[in-house]
Design a protein that fits this description.
- This protein is α/β, with parallel strands linked by helices.
- It is built from 12 helices and 8 strands.
- β2, α2 and β3 form a beta-alpha-beta unit.
- It binds 2-phosphoglycolic acid.
Length: about 250
């Protein structure tokens, strides 16, 4: 029987400036330590790049983690505007989101780029939260299983057994992101189990049991508990409902 802490990740996207970031994290820490909920869940917050350093300083010595929302696919050099794995690691960042559908859509990140990002992050011992999911059209055509399988084989299934230990998967159906249309609990469980079975075939039981498979896409204070209670759902990636302290706390308490 798998007994794992759930992971809850706040993906703030391009929201919150310096003041909102620092005051949210300080107030949040106060609450979760008072309520002792930090022991029951692993909580990760992903603010924007300029605030990663101060955020990682604020949480230092606690079990709260800070994640970057992006990473460069190269080590260093003439890549204006990019932030490298080495830079992230040098300010204490141990998690990064890769493959979010917004990065794929607006910044045209291909599977080759995503794989390079995965490789560089794991090389620097940064844990990857790898996002994948089908479009609404693909789901309507009942192609979601084949899309997810192809995506896994094109990306994280190129990882060695050492690298895979640093990978978390976030199943995020694109039709559910920021739309208020959440996948049903059955739809979540079905895909999560499918992913876990593929992991088992490729990497064996230990990896498939231990890897975290999170759900993301319109999680809110009402549906979080039901989604998180599914056997193969190891937590969630929360967008809009992570921006306000009370909402995020409610999700964590659920
Ligand atoms: P949402 O975003 O919760 O606002 O749908 C989730 C995500 O994009 O990770």
């Amino acid at each position: 029987m798998r007994i794992k802490k759930k992971i809850v990740i706040a993906n703030w996207k391009m929201n919150h400036g310096f003041y909102e970031t620092t005051s949210f994290i300080r107030n949040f820490m106060k609450k979760i330590f008072e309520e002792k909920i930090n022991h029951k869940k692993k909580i990760i917050i992903a603010p924007s790049f300029p605030f990663l350093h101060i955020a990682s300083q604020i949480v230092r010595g606690t079990n709260l983690q800070i994640a970057a929302q992006n990473i460069s696919f190269e080590e260093k050099g003439a890549y204006t505007g990019e932030v490298s794995a080495y830079m992230l690691k040098s300010i204490g960042i141990n998690y990064v989101l890769i493959g979010h559908s917004e990065r794929r859509k607006y910044f045209l990140e291909s599977k080759e780029i995503l794989l390079k990002k995965i490789k560089i992050a794991t090389k620097h011992k940064i844990n990857v939260i790898f996002c994948l999911g089908e479009t609404g059209e693909e789901r309507n055509k009942n192609q979601h299983f084949s899309i997810i399988k192809k995506e896994l084989y094109n990306t994280i299934f190129h990882c060695s057994s050492n690298e895979i230990d640093l990978i978390h998967i976030a199943y995020e159906p694109i039709w559910a992101i920021g739309t208020n249309k959440t996948a049903t609990t059955e739809e979540c469980q079905e895909i999560h189990q499918f992913i876990r079975n593929l992991l088992m075939k490729k990497y064996g039981k230990c990896v498939s049991n231990n890897i975290f498979i999170l759900y993301g896409g319109s999680i809110n204070t009402e549906n979080a508990g039901k989604i998180f209670s599914q056997l193969d759902v190891d937590g969630g990636l929360i967008g809009s409902y992570s921006l306000e302290l009370e909402n995020f706390l409610k999700i964590i308490r659920s």
